[in-house]
Design a protein that fits this description.
five-stranded antiparallel sheet
Amino acid sequence: MKLPTPWSSRLIEKQFTHGLSESDQVKLSAILKDNHAHAATYQRYHDLEAALCQSPKPTLFAIERMERLIINQTLAGTTKASRRFVHVWLASSAALGTLAVLVFALLLPWQNKLDHQALPENARFSPVVINTRGQIVPRETGIGIRVFCVVAEDTVVKESIEPSYRDVLTFTYSNVAKDVAYLTLLGIQNKGDVRWYYPDYEGSRSISIERNVVDEPLGDGIKLSVNHEPGDLRIVALFSAEPLNKAMVEKAAKNMSPSQLTPLMGQRQDVLEHSVLIHVAEPMGEE
């Protein structure tokens, strides 16, 4: 994995201080898409800004950055007369409402992408408390997942902990089953709201996994505050010989409650399913 270069770091810093031109916005988008280290640097700036603004949601500064980008893209390639029309349109109240929708539509993919983050080399982990009555055990013992919470380096690792909304989760999987080569891992909250882990929000199908492994780390950390909320969370692992289509899985999860004990994929014989129910707590000091 490439480390952030001084040039790319300055570009990220400028995005959060003075703003970027349209061409630099395009460059930054490509950098963040292709390099997890750069994305992690961007995430740190994003977290600092959110902390200073006391808001976990897109801040006013983030919205203003996206507004500038939209306006620049709208004006690019237009004639002088049409630019005058665009400025008049942008000044209208209807345009501001439309612009707000566009801003959040553009912010959401970034937010979804940035819930995955690289784990530090010295990261420590505590197992997450599992609701034993909410577990769906696979019909074969050769597959399974475990859920861990990333804890501070100086933290005493407990037998198990309940994660909070501000924590980072990570996963391991075991696969000693015959012919299993793919994994789909997702979370379900509320009434069928899907949180994608593997594949991520940009992927379209299951990821390939190793065979004959036990407690194999999946690598990334999932930052709960980006796409999750406090409350029950069902984590579903689907093991299969062939990759599953994400849209099909999402359709199956529609209207499914986290506490529901019916297997997500029903009685499909070509899918081995293991799911656990955990609770995401409110952060300490917050109501």
